[in-house]
Records
---
Amino acid sequence: MEPDVVPAIAIFGANASGKSNFLRALSTMFRMIRTSATRPDEPLPFSPYLLTRTPQAETMFEVATRFNGIRYDYGFTYNNESITGEWLRSWPKGRQRTLFDRKGDDDGWYFGDSLSGGNLSLARATRSDALLLSTAGILRHEILSPLYEQFASLLHNTGTNDLPQTLQQTLQSLATKSDRQLAITKLLAHADLGVGSIVVEEDKLSEEVREQTRKLYEALMPNMSADELSERLDRATLSPQLHHASADGMIGLPFGWESVGTQNFLALLGPILDRLEAGGVLIVDEIDTSLHPRLVSELVRLFQSPLTNRRQAQLILSTHDVTVMMNAGDYGVLERDQLWFVEKDANGTSTVYPLSDFSPRKSEVFSRSYLNGRYGAVPAIDNHSFSNLWND
């Protein structure tokens, strides 16, 4: 049976670090796919669970996805020294087919009959701390290289800590994509932010700041080439100016005067439109930062609609905003299998599970039941517990 694919998943939980760590784990997996073969000096990102007296032996990642209508299951295990296992399976006609299976030792290789190409040479070229799929991408393996490209470009993530960088990428897309200016302008206008148009300007370093920056680079990075140093000094920072409607016509305001919510909304539009145009998975940590619940719902709705999400992109978001899980009125954008929770037990272990595990009734208001503790993943705080501290 093929895995269920939903266009949007929202993750809730009282433990913010638990949600962030879950999303960070997804990012770690795909970063390893992209870079493990090209960075031999970089240690494996092995972070064992610390709240236990028994050290974790290894980490396992596995993902099920679909490329060109075919399901693929890919996964691997590793410790702080090497890849201890790796496998890739497909279901081209509804039946499982193993493309390769790797064990930790040098002789632990299995290649399926359907995997043509220099498989043994590929195995010999794969370092013990590198993934076979990553190495196949570098060596242009006949079958695995295209799959590597698809896996490597599948996941994209952003969050509140990345918003300045994300904003620059969004503004860059305005210059490189002809239809992006119109799309972003329309979305800003329909968000009821009072914005009618956007102008992007370049902010280059002054001569004084340029000289100070050059000296700093030379001191901290003495091996940097003259061309790279010049490229960094010439790199301009893009600065947007939003034009607002007023009684005297359209007035442009400095971007720093805009609300944090408006700034974050503009920054997120770039990666959201990128995924809607190209497909893939977008992870947004704490998407509701300074955004009105209606704006968050409308951004999620872009992935839910086949009209705007023709490439079957997927959005995975973490949030504390329970209005996202409301199943009444205009807020009802997510179904029960799209709502997930992160619960931390007494030992500090986090578990991820869907709302559908509780088989809620059709008439049940998800947000109210969640706040009342029916689904777990809420703070264990008694009423008036904070104020009672003064009585103690």
Note: The CA atoms of residues 18 and 243 lie 40 Å apart.
---
Amino acid sequence: MRAAVVGGGVAGAASAIALRRIGWAVTVYEAYADPAGPYGSFVSLASNGLRGLAALGCLPGIQQVGFPVQRQRMWSGGGKLLGDVPRGRRADDPLASVTLNRSDLVSVLRQEALAAGAQIVTGRRIAPDDHALAEVDLVVGVDGIWSAIRHWVDPAAPAPHYAGLYTASGVSDAPWVAGDPSFEPGNFNMTFGRQGAFIHLPAPDGTVWWSAQVVAPIAPDGSLMTIEALQTAFDMEQRVGRILRQARPAITRTLNHVLEPVPVQAGERTVLIGDAAHPVGAGQGASMAIEDAVILARQLCAFDTSGERTAGAGIPKALATFVELRCRRLGKLAKSAASNRDAKTAGPLAALLRDTIMPFTFNRFYERATGWLYDFDPGELPAGKSDRAA
């Protein structure tokens, strides 16, 4: 069986690995020559995403290039501790969250895909009538929130719209303060500011990785999303100001977009995964793409081995089952992501209520509220099948 994976990034590489694990021939077509992503952008993987990486056989490599993050601490703009919980897991789960540069995550997965026998073609955009698709059995669309393949599947599919936030990420050199618990190694810190939320993590090399999500009702031009603009937006948050004053000049900038639920995520021989189908946010984008890749491969394998050769009726049934399996979980996560965005854009009264109530509720109810997300295990893939004839 042959698959064309159209798009790159985490979803593309993870899909290629998963399909090779079940014995498919895979070619990945990436529009950009360098698909690893911009410098300075980082991603955190929670326990559910790490279990997906384990199913792909990639977990040790990812843990090696990232660093573990044990705790998540939430702060008010004035420095009041609002919550302190395990990061991306239950308290009794030994699988610690991992933070790493997005480029490193993609690079490790791409190398694993190549080692598994996938072909990767860079710098090539694929159109619906491209001859490369003529003889494949399956097209996997992983081309992100601005997906073209989404409209191949459904010409009436929704389009992204601006979410009223932009994100800027970067690295700061040694803004450490003795006795400040937010600079303790192994901690993810989120500060709720007046004009958005600010995340920072002390890295093992002595730097601090940070990401700011800034409220901007009208989408700003990229030239306006500067360190100076961030300093103005967080001028009342002293800890954030200290970090930004030590920031390196190179930062990444992204306008945040949201997408209404995609009603059609698969056709007879085409399926969307990752942000092409569900740009969920909430720090779970990469983990959801990894989950998607594993579960899609498991469904294709299940219909293949159940007596319905996937070249016949099996592929459409496998795709329909895959979409059904993912729908409820991803819908629930989308609601959680919307709540997170609302918390970051809270007005003065809502912020006062949040800062008053969270210290009494967040730690107590965190595991109950997030256990369904972090406990998930996408299952295992067959071992050794990538070496068989496809």
Note: The CA atoms of residues 328 and 334 lie 10 Å apart.
---
Amino acid sequence: MRTTTGAGLCVLAMTILGSSVTFSRAIVDYPPLTGQAARYAVAALLLFGLSTMGARGPRPGPRDLAILTALAATGLGAFNLCILIGLRHADPAVVGTVIGAAPLGLAISAPLLRRDRPSGVVVAAAAVIVAGIVIFYGGGSSDAIGLLAAFGAFLGEVLFSLLADAVLPRLGAVRTSAYSCALAVPLLLLCAVVVRESPRAPTLTQALTLGYLATALTVGAFLAWFNGLRRLGVDRAGLFVGVLPVSTLVVTALVDHRLPGLTRTGGVLLVAAGLSIGLFHRGPVAMLSRTGRPGSAARPDRTPPSPAASPRSPQASGTG
């Protein structure tokens, strides 16, 4: 039941993210970093409001704030900046494919940080998912700067998950989301100044789209994702980054009334196969220990693992 619920929450988060890629086409011409800062500011206000409605939880201590700042700087600020730079020097297919390797990165790095060996089955499943993503996005061209920026976005994607894993058990999904969004706002505005973005008031359509990104994508998807992570563990939850191309394909086909091509459909089927391998084999399931601290894969002498991973894509990039 815990695995099923966690899987459902992660799928929901990636489905919301997939829809955002389609609807973000309405803000292609709006300054991206300024738009992201506005989106996270609105989301932070909503999330802090939600945090006051339930039982009073712990406030982040100095260590928590350091981790949350690193999370906002790498997983939100640097992630968006790297994609912005990457799309100026590389095709979207290249950027999407490199970031799409995140399931494999998490399947390997998360157990190593727990001082465990990566699960061979989960690593194999992640490799299948990455292969499906490569097929889905296809080829593309890039220069050295584009590849470095895409790799930077990949690192941001992985670090977002690993750093969230360190604070989720103590702060919970709502406060982790709220503080990371709030801390990302000044960082994104600083990035906008560095790249000399010219902020301007959005049109009505752009304002509505940014509102959707703030509420559905950031608040809704963050909460679904983080709660899913607490039930699955980083390595297995990371596999669901591979659901993004699937949800993007389905939503785009519905909105545009156009069936996808055979190549993209084949990539999606490969992603689905990888998810099935990783989630439903009869190996040990990563999950939080009763103490709320990350453990290792289920063994008689040790308690099981913990959570964390992604959804907060840059607007109109077509990537996760």
Note: Residues 144-194 form the longest helix (51 residues).
---
Amino acid sequence: MFSPDTTLDRAIAYALDNPGKRLRSRLTITTAELIAGEPVSAAIRVGDAIEYLHTYSLIHDDLPAMDDDDLRRGKPTLHRAFNEATAILAGDGLQALAFEQLASIDELSPSLRVELIRLVSRAVGLNGMVGGQALDLAAEGSQIDHAALTQIHRLKTGALIEAAVIGGALSANASEWQISALQRFAENIGLAFQVMDDVLDVSSDSAMLGKTAGKDAAAQKSTYVALLGLEGAREEAETLLSSALSALSPFAEAASDLVCLAQQMVRRER
């Protein structure tokens, strides 16, 4: 049971029972294994907390006051399957559950748990995902330059991806140089992922994506495709991927799993 209310409990289960690609938790777990050389149990729980936050953000993004979408992960969005009030409460509950989970990872020291909470709360807050979403909404229907678009997506999408990577590193007690290299990797792969999201919005269909295709253009959103063209956006994604993989070079073959995951994030069809 997530909640004492049966409808809210079913709504949260509905959102979590269709987990999507779980790229963020996979980044956390794979990064921790890169550092430790073996599975890290705490990283699994950190990854789950980050997925709770990602799911909450999708629930709220889909609401009529935001992106007003009907389809998510191949099924009706939560507010369509239930109602708007339940969707808002489910998102709020998942956000709180994420921080409860981070605070309860007994394998990690209290100081490390506080550091993880600081990292993740910043990633989803005013100087992260929420701030990026506000900038994105403000830019609808207007033309912005490359720097402004990059700022939006480093905050809206990239910040939580960066937290997923660094959260995995912290879970495995990474050194300063390791965290520095992984930070460069995360900044580039987070942005590359968003560029490909923009590409797929115009080059794929709703059945393949599991969400409404062409939504960005219909909403007059600022995207990399609108700014650079379809092929230009693809080239941008590849350039960012190359920079991300270059940041992993100090880890040599130990980073092979993380390299493969990064390539999957960019060279995907949905």
Note: Residues 6-265 form a domain with the Farnesyl Diphosphate Synthase fold (CATH 1.10.600.10).
